[in-house]
């Protein structure tokens, strides 16, 4: 094969790869949710009201119905088992920037586009990002607003795998919206607001011990 032919062949492969990445990105909804590949995911519910006291919620779903590119969801109440956490808009806005920035960066590294941070509406989330967002939301739902930045810094110091583990353990024991302030939810708040975490070092022994001991509190 001539140099010119090889050059054309390489350019064609590069173009095809670019088109493939673009095609994958176009299939994603919200933050990395791919309805054709996985039916499990989360939805961030942002109210139309701009009031700081309006409610923002996160729900987990095992099945999604997508109709002509639009997500169709059942009507949920705060007591529905699918609802994992409810925050005030003011709390959400305190953590949203940090979460959205990290999620966007990771999605782009994976070849997926990320939407700009919306003010209202239902936003489907990749299941792993949904778990990580719940961990951060649980940590600050009952925290003093002044220590929310500390919780965010500590959350950023955790590896994604640690966040997934925290989600799994917390959701199994106290994962519904109304189960705030007890068991793993309470221990998680203390772990991320009272124990400095250095990025790359993971959970310090004291925080891990508090979380493991929280099993004794889950039935209180």
In words, what does this structure look like?
- The protein has 220 residues and is an alpha+beta fold.
- The chain has one domain.
- The protein contains seven helices and six strands, in the order αβββββαβααααα.
- It has helices spanning 3-27, 89-109, 127-140, 148-157, 160-174, 183-193, 205-213, and strands spanning 41-46, 55-61, 65-67, 70-72, 83-88, 121-125.
- It has a four-stranded antiparallel sheet with strand order 5-2-1-6.
- Strand 3 and strand 4 form a beta hairpin.
- Helix 3 (127-140) packs across helix 6 (183-193) and helix 6 packs antiparallel against helix 7 (205-213).
- The chain is globular.
- The termini are far apart.
- 31% of the residues are buried.
User: Count of helical segments?
Assistant: 7
Placed side by side, the strands forming the largest sheet appear as: 5-2-1-6
Number of strands: 6
Q: Which range best describes the helical content: under 10%, 10-25%, 25-40%, 40-55%, 55-70% or over 70%? A: 40-55%
What proportion strand?
A: 5-15%
**What is the SS-derived class?**
alpha+beta
Radius of gyration: 20 Å
Instruction: Characterize the largest beta sheet: strand count, sense, and whether it forms a barrel.
Output: 4 strands, antiparallel
Task: Compute the average pLDDT.
Answer: 81
Q: Identify the overall geometry.
A: globular
């Amino acid at each position: 094969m001539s140099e010119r032919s090889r050059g054309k062949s390489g350019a064609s492969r590069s173009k095809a790869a670019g088109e493939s990445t673009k095609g994958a990105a176009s299939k994603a909804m919200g933050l990395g949710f791919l309805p054709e590949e996985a039916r499990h995911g989360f939805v961030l519910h942002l109210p139309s009201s701009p009031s700081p006291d309006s409610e923002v919620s996160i729900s987990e779903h095992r099945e999604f119905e997508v109709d002509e590119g639009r997500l169709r969801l059942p009507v949920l109440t705060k007591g529905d088992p699918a609802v994992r956490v409810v925050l005030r808009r003011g709390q959400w806005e305190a953590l949203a920037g940090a979460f959205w920035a990290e999620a966007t960066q990771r999605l782009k590294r994976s070849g997926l586009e990320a939407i700009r941070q919306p003010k209202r509406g239902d936003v489907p989330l990749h299941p792993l990002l949904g778990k990580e967002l719940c961990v951060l939301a649980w940590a600050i739902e009952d925290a003093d607003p002044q220590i929310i930045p500390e919780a965010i810094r500590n959350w950023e110091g955790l590896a994604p795998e640690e966040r997934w583990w925290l989600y799994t353990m917390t959701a199994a024991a106290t994962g519904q919206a109304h189960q705030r302030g007890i068991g793993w939810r309470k221990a998680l708040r203390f772990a991320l607001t009272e124990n400095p975490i250095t990025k790359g070092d993971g959970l310090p022994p004291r925080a891990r011990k508090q979380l493991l001991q929280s099993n004794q509190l889950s039935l209180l």
